[in-house]
């Protein structure tokens, strides 16, 4: 028997939650880590239809790329598809786990490495590597009013976890947190102030080196292609209904930058990385102007860019678990249609 927490531990080894972006809400959204896994349905979007599909297939865990709850929910009356999905999941005892920007941000087995594989890119690297991360383990004395947590957050700690509260005077607490190099000084001064005893804390760099963590990916085609051939290649390989692109530059395509989903923020990195094409999604009219003759932006659609994440998640889970079924959703959740 497999407990949900074992599945989560495996997923978090592939894509540590600390690498999610600050606006994200990846992780366990409904369900209990102690529940036994009867089957897993993987999807991009855990919509109501997907939850019903999971229930019909005997799967009590849905692993989705996009978190169904992204901002606070104040009521669950079924007025929106988000509320209805959450109600449906809880009613069927289905755990929903999201593996989102943390999966976008890993080099190995991530959203972008799968896109790069589909396009046949070689010599790939992360387009915008994350700054070096450090992990803090500490036993600190707490004043019990949440000020310590607040101070750590202000000093730049992310995902600070207060693990064990020891009773007594002063109240001691064990803390785990991650932070970027720039926050080292601020974090240290909080530690000096709150350490339970001299040296009751430890800071070490996180195992995964930073070139393995970050946004987007850039790589090369094994052989140059004309721009038109590349557009056809892109459309076929990514099963795109439509490719919206900027003016072609009348030069061969060799280096290609990719980012699944809304990658517009990486345009500067794609140009600086010498990419001939930038393949992503969610471009708006005015943003296309930013190509400015330096690169060709190709918007293939959000769903299209990430659809192979479904098979990727299936492979990641099947590799480690064989005592329950892992199904890929048959529900097409793309809300965009082409006429
Ligand atoms: Zn997405």
What does this structure look like?
The chain has about 350 residues and is of the alpha/beta class. The chain has 12 helices and 15 strands. The chain has 3 domains: about 5-100 and about 310-330, Udp-n-acetylmuramoylalanyl-d-glutamate--2,6- Diaminopimelate Ligase, Chain: A, domain 1 (3-Layer(aba) Sandwich), CATH 3.40.1390; about 110-130 and about 215-300, Udp-n-acetylmuramoylalanyl-d-glutamate--2,6- Diaminopimelate Ligase, Chain: A, domain 1 (3-Layer(aba) Sandwich), CATH 3.40.1390.30; about 135-205, Alpha-Beta Plaits. Helix 2 (about 50-55) packs parallel to helix 3 and helix 6 runs antiparallel to helix 7. The chain is globular. The structure holds zinc ion (ZN). Zinc ion binds near residues 66 and 261.
The overall number of domains is 3
Largest sheet: 6 strands, mixed
Helix residue percentage: 25-40%
At the first level of CATH, the class of the largest domain is Alpha Beta
Enumerate the spans where pLDDT stays under 50 for 5 or more consecutive residues.
none
Give the amount of beta strand, in percent: 25-35%
What is the helix/strand order?
HEEHEHEHHEEHEEHEEHEEHEHEHHE
Structural class: alpha/beta
The name of the CATH topology of the largest domain is: Udp-n-acetylmuramoylalanyl-d-glutamate--2,6- Diaminopimelate Ligase, Chain: A, domain 1
Work out the radius of gyration.
22 Å
CATH superfamily of the largest domain: NIF3 (NGG1p interacting factor 3)-like
| Helical segment count | 12
Shape: globular
Bound molecules: zinc ion
Number of strands: 15
Give the strand line-up of the largest sheet.
Answer: 5-10-12-13-14-11
Through-space gap between termini: 47 Å
What is the name of the CATH architecture of the largest domain?
Answer: 3-Layer(aba) Sandwich
């Amino acid at each position: 028997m497999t407990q949900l927490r074992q599945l989560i531990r495996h997923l978090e080894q592939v894509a540590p939650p600390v690498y999610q972006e600050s606006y994200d809400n990846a992780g366990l959204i409904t369900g209990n880590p102690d529940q036994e896994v009867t089957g897993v349905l993987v999807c991009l979007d855990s919509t109501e239809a997907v939850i019903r599909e999971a229930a019909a297939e005997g799967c009590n865990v849905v692993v989705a790329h996009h978190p169904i709850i992204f901002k606070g929910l104040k009521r669950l009356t079924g007025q929106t598809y988000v509320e209805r999905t959450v109600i449906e999941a809880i009613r069927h005892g289905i755990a929903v786990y999201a593996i989102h920007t943390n999966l976008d941000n890993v080099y190995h087995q991530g959203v972008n490495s799968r896109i790069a594989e589909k396009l046949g890119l070689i010599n790939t690297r992360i387009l915008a590597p994350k700054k070096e991360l450090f992990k803090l383990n500490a036993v600190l004395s707490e004043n019990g009013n949440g000020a310590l947590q607040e101070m750590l957050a202000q000093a730049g700690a992310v995902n600070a976890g207060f693990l064990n509260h020891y009773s007594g005077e002063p109240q001691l607490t064990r803390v785990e947190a991650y932070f970027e190099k720039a926050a080292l000084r601020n974090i240290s001064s909080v530690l000096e102030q709150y350490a339970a005893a001299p040296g009751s804390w430890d800071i070490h760099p996180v195992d995964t080196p930073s070139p393995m963590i970050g946004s987007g990916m850039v790589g090369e085609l094994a052989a140059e292609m004309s721009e038109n051939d590349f557009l056809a290649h892109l459309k076929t390989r990514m099963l795109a209904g439509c490719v919206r692109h900027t003016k072609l530059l009348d030069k061969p395509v060799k280096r290609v930058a990719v980012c699944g989903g809304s990658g517009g923020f990486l345009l500067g990195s794609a140009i600086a990385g010498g990419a001939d094409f930038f393949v992503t999604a969610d471009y708006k009219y005015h943003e296309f102007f930013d190509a400015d003759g330096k690169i060709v932006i190709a918007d293939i659609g959000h769903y299209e860019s990430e659809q192979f994440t479904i098979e990727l998640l299936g492979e990641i889970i099947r590799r480690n678990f064989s005592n329950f079924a892992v199904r890929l959703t048959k529900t097409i959740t793309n809300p965009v249609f082409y006429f």
